[in-house]
Write a structure and sequence with these properties.
The protein is an alpha+beta fold. Helix content is 31%, strand content 21%. The chain is built from eight helices and nine strands. The protein has helices at 8-18, 35-44, 49-55, 67-76, 86-91, 189-200, 216-228, 239-247, and strands at 23-24, 29-32, 63-65, 96-101, 109-117, 120-129, 132-138, 142-147, 155-159. It has a six-stranded antiparallel β-sheet with strand order 4-9-5-6-7-8. It has a three-stranded mixed β-sheet with strand order 1-3-2. Strand 6 (120-129) and strand 7 (132-138) form a beta hairpin. The radius of gyration is 20 Å and the shape is globular. 39% of the residues are buried.
């Protein structure tokens, strides 16, 4: 049990370190691997059945995770509940205090890592500081500790908690953006603020500039931003897109 002097960051790092050596099975949520359980997973996820058949025996008797369930387990040590699935975690409105691309990753423990493939997040891990991370790497590897420079992570995100607070301190309630949902055809100062934010992030908003009118060029800029952030690229600025705009560096 964590002592009162431990911080949320420290207990997350401790939880991640304690899981090194655990197994990897796609869809596993931390259960102990048994022949019956492995067969059940193979039936549920037939695409991964050959990998389970090949590597599953080495994980017998061990706790098993997939990458998103591993990061979910780590966040739970700080009293925070992440959704299942790497893209769902990345897109979770209100879950993150700060996000960025891997080139700007702060070298400190307690930060979650993501790999974007195409327009979705396909892998996740957790930084323990000193240029190292821990992740549930795959069926052949299990949960491993690696140098971040040796991984394929493309993005990072910091939980919307005070990670320096005591481990048992309550987390603040999730705050979602209260701005209206914006889509093509609308106009106003909030549309202008959107356009200025997009332009500031390097997205082309059209020859009219920040005119406060949500036209074709603004919608195209929104879609490009959403794709870059592994969000649903529908051109509509709702709570999740507003949150991503606020957090992206």
């Amino acid at each position: 049990m964590a002592s009162e002097l431990q911080t949320k960051r420290e207990v997350m790092v401790a939880r991640a370190l304690s899981l090194v050596g655990c197994g990897y099975v796609y869809g596993a949520t931390g259960w102990i691997c048994t022949p019956g359980r492995l067969a059940q997973q193979a039936r549920q996820y037939p695409l991964y059945a050959p990998l389970m058949a090949r590597y599953g025996p080495r994980w017998m008797g061990k706790r098993c995770f997939d990458c998103a369930q591993f990061t979910r387990e780590v966040a739970s040590a700080a009293g925070f509940s992440l959704p299942s699935g790497t893209s769902s975690q990345w897109r979770a409105a209100g879950a993150w205090k700060e996000k960025g691309r891997i080139a700007g990753l702060p070298d400190e423990p307690g930060i979650f890592l993501f790999t974007m493939t195409g327009s979705t997040m396909t892998h996740a891990g957790f930084s323990i500081g000193g240029g190292e991370e821990i992740d549930a790497r795959g069926h052949a590897y299990g949960v491993v500790r690696r140098r971040i420079a040796d991984t394929s992570f493309t993005h990072w995100a910091r939980l919307a908690i005070d990670d320096g607070a005591a481990a048992d301190a309550p987390n603040p309630p999730i705050k979602l953006p209260t701005r209206r949902t914006l889509r093509r055809g609308l106009s106003g100062e909030d549309v202008r603020a959107l356009q200025l934010r997009l332009a500031g992030l390097g997205y082309e908003i059209g020859s009219s500039g920040a005119d406060g009118v949500f036209g074709r060029a603004t919608r195209s800029a929104v879609i490009r931003f959403q794709r870059d952030q592994a969000l649903a690229a529908d051109g509509v600025v709702g709570a999740t897109t507003w949150a991503a705009l606020a957090l992206t560096r």
